[in-house]
Amino acid sequence: MGAAMGTALKLLLDPADHAGNFRRHGLLQEYAIAITTAPAIVKASRLDLSPKLNVTQGLRAVVINCLEQIQGNEAGVIHGNDPESVHQMRIGLHRLLCAVGIFSRVAPCPRMLHDELKWLGTALGAVRDWDVLTNDTLPEIIAAHPDQAELLPLQKACMQRARKKHRHAAAAIDSARYAHLILSCGSWADSWAHGAGRPLKKNLTQPLAKFAKKILARRHKKLQEKIRLLHDAETSDAQANDAPQLQHKIRIAAKKNRYAIEFFKSLFPAKSIQPYLKTLTALQTVAGRMNDAVVAMRLLHSLGQEHADLALAAGFCKGYLAIHRQSDTGKLDKACKRLTR
Predict the structure, then answer these.
(1) Measuring CA to CA, which residue among 167, 174, 87, 82 is closest to residue 125?
(2) How far is CA 223 from the centre of its chain?
(3) Count of CB atoms within 10 A of residue 153's CB?
């Protein structure tokens, strides 16, 4: 699949070939029909940025890297059955949204393009939520309580819902709207990198390393502020109800911080980056697990309301998740303290 995807990406990123850009989607479809093996699952590739790059050149390199991951999983989402294809495409999209945020002050993304990225995020997020519940959360609960026979019909119902969401996601990726979105992302990054016939402002021509250092410092400060607010909420009865929302904000901030570091880490000595990145990843892991529990409880609640025969099993699972999420709260606090140190 690499050759076809490489050709598609070349068409996408060549601003002189707009007809080829719009043919990109058909190229992928034709190739997908021909393959006989499961589509590849494409993770984020290492990004090696030269210290000689300026901000606009760095923007283009980061956006291309994100688009490669997104496009690399197209065939898997449309024609495959592995939930990991959706997961990796969604990661690529989150990385792209993070990049949009990083460069927003110097190279703002058009509102229409940002809204379309959110549309894609909604399509992928819906199927990913049901995938996690079906393939990760419920098997864990069933393994812990094999005597609860009513959990099996619940899992079957979740599988059916996940398959339905997969069809919706496949249709979204197989649409002209998606093709236009990907084209627009490439064109937007190119317009800044090439100046689009206008002189670049000073903040766009500054060294990328200098810009990256400011971004990472700013992101870390924001994360520290959210950790402090969570600590204040947990130690105050008046603010205790704010803790779940703050935990969610910490997860989002940690994820954005991690992506930013992964974008720019080639610009800095590894020994100054790796320990912090390792601690940040650990924080994101436990915060992500807590968020998965919250999402699963929401999905189980809706399923129990729609199907009375599944309400008891759904309630049992929600109780299990609530207990385990509470135990993860202590782990999150420890991860936050390690990051602060």
Answers:
(1) 87
(2) 18
(3) 13
